[in-house]
Design brief:
Elements lengths: L1 H23 L17 E16 L2 E18 L3 E10 L1 H7 L15 H4 L8 E10 L3 E10 L9 E12 L3 E8 L2 E3 L3 E15 L2 E15 L5 E17 L3 E9 L15 E11 L1
Antiparallel strand pairs: 1-2, 1-13, 2-3, 3-4, 4-5, 5-6, 6-7, 6-8, 7-9, 8-9, 9-10, 10-11, 11-12, 12-13
Protein name: Outer membrane protein beta-barrel domain-containing protein
Keywords: Signal
């Protein structure tokens, strides 16, 4: 009887996997995917990121690598659109100080600063809601809102409204852009204006392209003073779709390539990440 049960379980598992794989073939190629998940479709992503943070020894500044894992999942919900949640796991003190998990956010670079994400082992949970307003052959426009919940000690509440835009050049490329305005509600409110421009090309299951971003930051520095800065970010990403429903991804990214601060250099702004995403149609 036990042998029959085992054989039955194996047969059922193989049958379920076969049916799941067949249904997964319905996932569209990278260039053709919609701005938001269709109703009752789901996705999950795990990315391992590596970043740096400054350390001082004998009055000399050096930089130490740290790492973390970004973990997120989303589902398409009728009427509302796409609902998702994101958190991160930082490995040791180096992972906490470097916030290396931000480089594990593969291709989705929208985030808050450390005051809203926290500096604990687990990042503050982030919840987002995204809907599509217009989707025609050439362009798709949506609305998005994100919340970062201050679960970590000394962290703050974050809110980021946004307008994601996807421009399609049929059979050639797609451009992921838009405008996002993350707020962090500290004693004085901090905010940024973020405009990404990610250009993607595809050859069979392989997709690749440059990751560019412009960000304006407003930082209060005192009761009556503030500091503004504009940064340009630059990187590249590559991915490969396996079995038509698993995306293997990798990226290299500079947090900034302009106005490098005194005592710093371009290499210290570098981070990279790799991971995988699963799409369930």
């Amino acid at each position: 009887m036990k042998r029959r049960h085992i054989l039955g379980a194996l047969f059922g598992s193989v049958l379920s996997l076969t049916m799941f794989t067949k249904s997964a073939h319905a996932v569209e190629p990278w260039l053709d995917r919609p701005l938001t998940l269709p109703s009752l479709h789901a996705s999950a992503d795990v990315g391992l990121g590596f970043g740096q943070y400054p350390t001082v020894s004998n009055n000399e500044v050096s930089h130490t690598w740290g790492s973390g894992a970004n973990i997120e999942a989303a589902v398409g919900v009728p009427i509302l659109g796409e609902v998702g949640v994101r958190t991160a796991l930082r490995f040791g003190d180096d992972g906490k100080f470097s916030q290396g998990d931000r480089f594990g956010r593969l291709f989705d670079k929208q985030t808050f600063d450390a005051r809203a994400t926290g500096r604990d082992t687990f990042a503050n949970p982030e919840i987002f809601l995204r809907g599509t307003l217009v989707d025609v052959n050439i362009v798709a426009v949506g609305l998005e809102t994100r919340f970062s919940l201050p679960a970590a000690d000394d962290s703050k509440f974050g809110w980021a409204p946004g307008v994601p835009v996807r421009i399609r050049i049929p059979s050639l490329a797609r451009i992921d852009t838009g405008i996002y305005v993350p707020f962090v509600f500290d004693d004085d409110t901090r905010y940024s204006v973020d405009i990404p421009a990610h250009v993607w090309f595809q050859s069979d299951q392989l997709f690749f392209g440059p990751l560019v971003g412009f960000r304006f930051n407003h930082f209060p520095t005192g009761p009556d003073t503030s500091e503004n800065e504009a940064t340009i970010r630059l990187g590249g990403g590559v991915g490969y779709t396996v079995l038509s429903f698993i995306d293997l991804k990798a990226q290299v990214y500079f947090d900034r390539v302009n106005k490098i601060r005194e005592g710093d250099n371009l290499g210290n702004q570098l981070g990279f990440g790799l991971g995988a995403g699963i799409n369930i149609p």
